[in-house]
Write a structure and sequence with these properties.
Glutamine Phosphoribosylpyrophosphate, subunit 1, domain 1; alpha/beta; single chain; 25 strands; binds 5-amino-5-deoxy-1-O-phosphono-D-mannitol; 7-stranded antiparallel beta sheet; Rossmann fold
Length: 595
């Protein structure tokens, strides 16, 4: 998810170790490359490469870097593969501006063409470099640096923040649009970072920036301005008193809860990325013309494949076959040939079951694409092309934000395949926030009421069937209760016998399937079950369920996606009530590199 850090000090000093430490403290965000730049008088010293912080810092001897100003950046590849040239920070054409960004500049491809046409030296594919050239453009037209940055903001579309400095100046400047940015104020220095962990060892006096603000950092003061009209903004600094661990959890009790609440932000980022990605059109074309199309994954990622197959069929009339990875070769291996296309889905990109299926598929000539969160993972390197999930690091073992971004990506691809306007999907992030706000209290109360049960069911139908499976997986993964996910209509074919007085059954209710869900609700309530319907508010659900957890109105596909949020929250609260650590459930590992 990238991270930036910049510092301005009142005297020339060794900054390399400090920048390395700051970068190290941002590694929890996930990254594949690291770089550092120091500015000493008129000289910029820039060192960067792909790899781990300690390896790159040692190889390029960051320790000897000196100056009064320094910038470091951790890169999580989106535009341009992980490489030395694509690593950040970047220089402008004549090497006197240096800057780095965090986030996605979605019009990067068009901007790079403009910069080249204007005669600038564009060295990489990376959108961080576009931030620097966007400023260079206005500096070359005679604007002072602050004004050039303000104007560049208007040219750079997407969600990002960036920090930039010039050789013959004594300040750094940073701007925020969508991605986090915090400023630290200390004795003889000021600094700026994507997040607090890199600031707190230096100072606990901070100023949090808001979107559309630009900060000027001098060694002895900071000045805040509005990007819109350049007007100064007065914001008193605040004192941070929390521990470092609490800060890393962003004020949440667990990483899982933090990651649940990050879902709207990362959905926004993946939608921006998909809008700007040069790969999407090729992937969609390939899928359109495939003889057979397979979506392959394990666990949560497999549930996203199931959701993708429903979306592809419902929206684009394109059949796709979702398969649990280890079953792929035994079931379909003999039938695979080069006319088939597979999308291999994995958060980690290292799941052995998925890589085994990929190896088998490629041996039979299948065109294999990836959908992964960890860029540079084996899956992203072994496929023709891999789309990034843009979630940053997911620390908690139960997948949450990576699942929703997998589903969002499938939905986006289905829209593109169907020739529909993807702008409609731009509502998703706000709907996610609305859902969490609407359900939070009710779900927490429900968790305390049903927590004594060690047997639950989670049912869905059509687009909500994969969501029911995912909700059940979350529940069993972190509560250690038995929770079975199932097609609602299958319940009467056996499991119905388990129902007793108060038995909790969760229904993920899609708006297209209300009559079927209503009959499912009655089937179990008349036998004493506590039937909880999660869906758009509907009098039919209210009249037939024991209770309704209402989510906001949207399309049937988006409604299915939103229905997973209350289920994630319910699992979280039940896990905590049972005294378990939802981030690190017993017996489980985040990355499964074994057969
Ligand atoms: O990294 P992957 O997406 O390939 O991992 C696959 C599963 O192990 C994973 O989704 C697992 O089911 C989750 N921890 C569930 O929350």
């Amino acid at each position: 998810m990238c991270g930036i850090f910049g510092i301005v000090t009142d005297k020339e000093q060794a900054l390399g170790a400090l920048l390395t430490e700051a970068a190290q403290r941002l590694t929890y965000r996930g990254y594949d490359s690291v770089g550092a730049a120091t500015i000493n008088g008129k000289t910029i010293d820039l060192r960067k490469d792909k790899g781990r912080v300690k390896d790159v810092a040692a190889r390029y001897n960051f320790a000897e870097m000196r100056g009064t100003r320094g910038i470091t950046q951790l890169r999580w590849a989106t535009f341009g593969e992980p490489s030395q040239v694509n690593s950040q920070p970047h220089l402008d054409s004549d090497g006197d501006l240096v800057g780095a960004h965090n986030g996605n500049v979605v019009n990067n491809v068009e901007l790079r063409q403009q910069f080249m046409a204007e005669g600038m030296t564009v060295r990489s594919m990376n959108d961080g470099e576009s931030c620097v050239h966007a400023v260079e453009r206005y500096v070359d037209r005679g604007y002072d640096l602050l004004e050039a940055i303000r104007r560049a903001y208007g040219d750079l579309q997407g969600d990002y923040s960036f920090v930039i400095g010039r050789a013959d100046d004594d300040k750094l400047y940073a701007i925020k649009k969508g991605s986090g940015l915090v400023v630290g104020i200390g004795e003889g220095f000021t600094c700026v970072s994507s997040d607090l962990p890199s600031i707190l060892p230096l100072t606990r006096t901070v100023v949090r920036l808001q979107d559309g603000e630009i900060i000027t950092l001098a060694a002895d003061r900071v000045e805040l301005h509005s990007v819109k009209d350049g007007a100064p903004i007065a914001r008193p600094p605040e004192l941070i008193t929390e521990t470092m661990e609490a800060v890393q959890k962003g004020g949440y009790a667990h990483f899982m809860l933090k990651e649940i609440h990050e879902q709207s932000q990362v959905a926004r980022e993946v939608l921006h990325m998909l809008d700007g990605s040069p790969d999407v059109a090729a992937v969609v074309e390939k899928m359109k013309n495939a003889r057979n199309l397979y979506f392959i994954g394990c666990g949560t990622s497999y549930h996203a494949c199931l959701a993708g197959a429903v979306y592809f069929a419902q929206l684009a009339g394109r059949a796709a076959i979702p398969v649990v990875a280890p079953q792929f070769m035994p079931q379909y291996g003999p039938t695979i040939n080069s006319q088939d296309v597979g999308l291999f889905v994995s958060q980690s990109g290292e799941t052995k079951d998925v890589l085994n299926a990929l190896e088998g598929a490629e041996a039979r000539g299948m065109a294999a694409y990836g959908l992964a969160n960890v860029i540079g993972s084996t899956l992203t390197r072994a496929t023709v092309c891999s789309l990034p999930l843009c979630c940053g690091y997911e620390i908690s073992v139960p997948a949450t934000k990576t699942f929703t971004n997998q589903v969002v990506t499938f939905l986006y691809l289905a829209y593109r395949l169907a020739g529909r306007d993807t702008a409609e999907l731009g509502r998703i992030p706000a709907l996610m926030d609305q859902t969490l706000a609407m359900v939070a209290d009710q779900v927490e109360k429900l968790a305390s009421e049903i927590n004594t049960w060690n047997d639950l069911y989670c049912l869905g139908y059509g687009a909500t069937y994969p969501i029911a499976l995912e909700g059940a997986l979350k529940l069993k993964e972190i509560t250690y209760a038995h929770c079975e996910g199932m097609l609602s209509t299958e319940f009467k074919h056996g499991p119905l016998s388990a129902v007793s007085q108060g038995f909790p059954i969760l229904f993920a209710a899609g708006p297209l399937d209300t009559p079927l869900i209503v009959s499912g609700l009655n089937e179990v309530t008349c036998r004493g079950a506590r039937a909880i319907a999660i869906g758009q508010d509907d009098p039919r659900l209210r009249a037939n369920a024991s209770e309704v957890i209402a989510i906001p109105g949207s399309t049937p596909e988006i409604a299915a996606l939103l229905a997973v949020l209350p289920l994630q929250l319910l699992s979280y609260h039940m896990s905590v009530l049972r005294g378990f650590d939802p981030d690190f459930p017993r017996n489980l590992s985040k990355t499964l590199t074994v057969d």
